[in-house]
Amino acid sequence: MGMVDRYKKPGGFVQLVQVIETCNAKKREQFMNIIAEENPEWAEALTQKSISFDKIVSWSPEVILEIMASVNQLAFSVALKSLAPEHLETFIQKLSPQDRRKIEMTLQEMNPTPNEIGASVMKVISETRGLLVQGSIKAEKIDPQLVIPDEFEAKLGKSARLEAAALSFEGPSTVVSTAANGAVATAEIEKLQKRLILLSKEVQILKNENQVMKDKLEKIKKIA
């Protein structure tokens, strides 16, 4: 059984999303490569609907404040250490002056290890995904691409089956199309041949009439 097959059940896509989101970068890449080989459609959907800490801090201030009020405060502050300075500054500018001071003071006081930062990032992502699953924050208001409809697994499978069906008919349809084009070409040639015969007859008639006129002209000349 392939990796994707294990999750082709109601709610399986969300479970796989959560697995992908909470992996370290190396393992995530390995998983995504496996999934892409097994089922490119699932791989594309996972890429589109997965969240990251960078995505979270790029959302609107209202959504960010709601997340900060719901997730572990310390973990969120530590996770901010994963951001590049310019991204951190952009995020801080979204906050109210009071929240900004709190975050800046917390960041100055702490000196987490890379492992602690990584673990905090995963915790914030996991808890944010939980808020999305519960409906506490609405994916459609953040980014419509993040929405995971009910029975999404079946819809992905249906899409793949329709594509396969379309591909299976590609060969025969091409043959039919080619045959049809050939039939049209043959009919056109026959029409042209018939037209050519008619034109040849008309030319011959004109030649005969021309000869008759010449003969009459010669007779008139002799009489004159």
From TrEMBL:
Pfam families: FliG_C (PF01706). Residues 35-137 form the Flagellar motor switch protein FliG C-terminal domain. InterPro entries: Flg_Motor_Flig_C, FliG_a-hlx. Residues 189-223 form a coiled coil. It comes from the Bacteria. Keywords: Coiled coil. This is Flagellar motor switch protein FliG C-terminal domain-containing protein. It comes from Pseudobdellovibrio exovorus JSS.
